[in-house]
Amino acid sequence: MQNDVFEYKRKSYIEIGNIYFWTATIINWQKLLAEDEFKDVVISSLEYLSKQGKTDVFAFVIMPNHVHLVWRIKELNGKESAHGSFLKYTAHIFKQLLKVKNQILLNNYKVDALK
Question: Is residue 68 a part of any domain in this protein?
C-alpha cells in the first residue's frame, strides 16, 4: 500500500483565483534585498499589480535574499501571468540598478597608472 496520502506534491504553477504562499529567491542566494532601493522595487511592483487589479496581496516579507508572498492572482497581465510579470520587471530594474552601482564603483576606484 502506498503512503502518498501524506506526501506533499509541489505545484510549479499558479491557478488564477487561488490564494498561494509563494517565494521568489535571488540567484545564488545573494543578499541583494538588504538594500532599501531594491526593496522599493519589489514593493512598487506589488503595488502596481494590485492597483491594476491583477493581484490581491494579503501579506509579504522581504528577506535579504528572498521574498515571501501570500497572494491571489486575479487575472493575466497581458499575455503573461502576474507573477511572471513581477519576476521579469523586478529582475530588469535590479539589473539597471546594479549597472549604475558598478559604474559608480569603477569610477571611484580608478587607478592612475602614470603615477
Answer: yes
> Would you say residue 81 lies in a domain?
yes
Question: How many domains does the chain contain in total?
Answer: 1
Distance of alpha carbon 76 from alpha carbon 4, whole angstroms: 33
The dihedral of CA 90, 93, 98, 104: what is its sign? negative
User: What CATH number should be reported for the domain holding residue 101?
Assistant: 3.30.70.1290
The SS3 of residue 43 is: helix
pLDDT digit of tens for each residue in the chain (115 aa)? Answer: 456 656 666 666 788 999 999 999 998 999 999 999 999 999 999 999 999 999 999 999 999 999 999 999 999 888 888 889 999 999 999 999 998 888 776 666 555 544 4
Tell whether pTM > 0.70.
yes
